[in-house]
Design goal:
- This protein has 1 helix and 10 strands; from the N terminus they run βββββββββαβ.
- It has 116 residues and is mostly beta strands.
- Strand 7 and strand 8 form a beta hairpin.
- It starts with a strand and ends with a strand.
- The mean pLDDT is 96.
Length: 116
């Protein structure tokens, strides 16, 4: 399995970013995927998940601002982030839900920095 996140950057409050994550070796038809983030000095937290059926759930802090989606043919999961806030500053990672539950590895994340 290889997880490669991209699309991060430095933006101002209120701006948008779209993150992408290519998840090689994970079948999206049978695995739910999630975006997670880790702010400096904090633990890694769940941001959004999309089930293998396409159902989505979000952390309360990002509801109404972030949208998770996927392209099964490209094995890619996306995170559209609108109206970004400084509190969204973190390294963002993707992973499958089952790999997270099993404590399996993480790929390279992508850094998002939001300034006020």
């Amino acid at each position: 399995v290889q997880l490669q996140a991209s699309g991060g950057g430095s933006v101002q409050s209120g701006e948008s970013l779209r993150l992408s994550c290519v998840a090689s070796g994970i079948d999206f038809n049978t695995n739910g995927m999630g975006w997670y983030r880790q702010a400096p000095g904090k633990q890694r937290d769940l941001v959004a998940i999309i089930s293998y059926l396409g159902n989505t759930k979000y952390a309360d802090s990002v509801k109404g601002r972030f949208t998770i989606s996927r392209d099964t043919a490209k094995n890619t999961v996306y995170l559209q982030m609108n109206n970004l806030e400084p509190e969204d500053t973190a390294v963002y990672y993707c992973n499958s839900q089952i790999r997270v539950l099993r404590g399996e590895g993480w790929g390279q994340g992508t850094l998002v920095t939001v300034s006020s």
